[in-house]
Give the backbone structure.
Amino acid sequence: IEDVEATFTKNDMKWRLNKMNTYEHLRSLAEINRENYPPGTRIMLVSMGNDPRPIENNTRGTVRVVDDIGTIHCDFDNGRKLGMIPGEDSFRKLTAEELSEEQELITLKM
């Protein structure tokens, strides 16, 4: 019985260490995403992963927030709201040229 208890304790400790490592990994990814995609950052969705109601490719949006596991929540120009999952969804920041073009269009509408 003592051996079984010792084995359980070792396995439980491994599980806890793995869980902690996963948590630390996600926390680290979230911090990186927060630095790279602060609120207000303009992005373009290149393509979505396996989503039953995908947003059209090349749709632009604005980052609202990055949550604690690194999901990048965006408000898209077509009115949809979605959390982008790095590695699952393909997206990028708008270039300086694309941002300039957007500003020109806004100015022309005024």
